[in-house]
Amino acid sequence: MDHLTILYRGPLASCDYDCPYCPFAKRRDTSEQLRADRAALERFTEWVAGCGRPVSVLFTPWGEGLVRSWYRRALTGLSHLPHVERVAIQTNLSHRVSWTADADLTRLALWATYHPGQVPYERFLGKCRDLASRGVRFSVGIVGQPEHLDAARRLRADLPAGTYLWVNAAEGRVYDDAEAASWTGIDPLFPVSRRPHASRGLACRTGETVVSVDGDGTVRRCHFVPSVLGNLYDGTFQDALAPRPCPLDTCDCHIGYVHLEPLGLYDTFAGGVLERIPALFGQA
């Protein structure tokens, strides 16, 4: 069977940070909600373990997953499965990183984001250096807010050699050429993020070789298109997998537009599509 990439987002929505640009900042899940998220994640990992096809998984929780033991166990366990080519998660690195010692580092990767004002700089940098010393694949990113520019330049200078630092354009922000040039000096791929991509009618891998799955197993082509393809657990999504153009006017999130075929980003990020590591950084 063909390789399938899954973006999994369960019901977890709690985060330990209070970023002003995030609607889920400092949100708390109840004990019942956390139990539901854990059960959903364990069901998902059981499905992956027995799916009988090559897969890669990116966890994209609304909240922070790695402070929860079940996410650390899921990443570790999936990394040891021979049919799992890559397992990655988006994280703020607020939790210790020693758990990665139990994972298969040929398959594990982290997509880490630095949020100035939420964590001391040296603490975050220390986590990055710890990951590098352990041989963990990871990228680091920052949101391109004007007040973050100095911190981003400092981080670019201090990160371990070979670590990619990406910059996400702030949602709704229009960058003039001078601003864009400043950010491009930090992340040479910032022009890809600078403006939303016109996407309607373009060929996209989502819905064919890439799908989004929620905690109930509902399968959609991506996080941004609400139409349902079927369910993971009853197998009804299988027959719906097919090439289909994007139905949206624009796509402005990396986890969406990276799969737009005309952009050619599978070549740019060859070997590191899920964890956002470009091939030019030589970590593939």
From TrEMBL:
InterPro entries: Aldolase_TIM, Radical_SAM_STM4011-like, rSAM_sf. NCBIfam families: rSAM_STM4011 (NF038073). This is Radical SAM protein. It comes from Actinomadura darangshiensis.
